[in-house]
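Design request, tokens follow.
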């Protein structure tokens, strides 16, 4: 097996926080953020975009400064807990998905953020983790989920070199398949027993039907079939896409 990268927890910068929180404040996740940080509602409601960005940058900068000790303590705790399982989880993901990490990929960044929404960034192989996520098993789940996405799309591109990376984001079929596949992978006993908790599909995905059946259930059954029959992840993805095309 080739070199396995390290997941490195880092504290978000003010520029990162302002950019990402600004994006989510404008979207459907805005209410979740302002529920935790009511002071951001005033910024959210600003009509002057330039002033809004300036005030948001000031707000997140102050938050980082005020909570600097908490950020450092959380970074240490998250890293210590993840390090216990990293050498079990990452090689197992490589085995399941059937592709190695890029030879040049030495580090995967887990960015500790005040943002309760945890986006991932495929080009940089990085993602954010909520500062006040108190359940360590949930942190392990988030890390494993995002690393699964990185390997999943690497595998997909190996299968489909012509794939447009824009389709790896919502609301495209490739994105939906990746989310449903991640749930199946994380509930594989080889992963679930190490992470310490089950993965659940997003509520909105439970409403999606494939031949009248719940999409996450259908894809999970397909994944189990690929394991039982020894057909592998590539077969799972090709057959999974055929099913997703029936849904959207």
């Amino acid at each position: 097996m080739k070199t396995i990268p390290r997941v490195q927890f880092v504290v978000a910068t003010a520029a990162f926080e302002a950019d990402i929180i600004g994006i989510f404040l404008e979207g459907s996740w805005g209410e979740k953020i302002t529920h935790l940080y009511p002071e951001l509602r005033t910024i959210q409601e600003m009509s002057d975009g330039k002033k809004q960005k300036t005030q948001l940058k000031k707000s997140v900068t102050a938050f980082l400064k005020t909570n600097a000790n908490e950020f450092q303590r959380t970074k240490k705790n998250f890293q210590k807990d993840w390090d216990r399982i990293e050498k079990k989880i990452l090689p197992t993901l490589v085995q399941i998905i059937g592709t190695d990490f890029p030879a040049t990929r030495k580090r995967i960044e887990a960015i500790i953020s005040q943002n309760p929404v945890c986006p991932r960034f495929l080009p940089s192989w990085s993602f954010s983790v909520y500062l006040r996520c108190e359940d360590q098993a949930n942190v392990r789940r988030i890390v494993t989920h995002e690393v699964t996405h990185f390997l999943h799309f690497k595998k997909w591109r190996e299968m489909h070199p012509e794939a447009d990376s824009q389709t790896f984001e919502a609301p495209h079929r490739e994105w939906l398949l990746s989310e449903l596949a991640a749930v199946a992978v994380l509930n594989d006993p080889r992963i679930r027993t190490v992470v310490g908790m089950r993965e659940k599909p997003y509520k909105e995905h439970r409403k999606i039907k494939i031949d009248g059946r719940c999409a996450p259930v259908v894809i999970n059954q397909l994944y189990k079939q690929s394991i039982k029959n020894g057909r592998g992840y590539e077969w799972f993805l090709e057959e999974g896409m055929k099913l997703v095309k029936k849904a959207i």
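Comment from the thread starter after seeing the answer: thanks! The CA atoms of residues 79 and 182 lie 22 Å apart.
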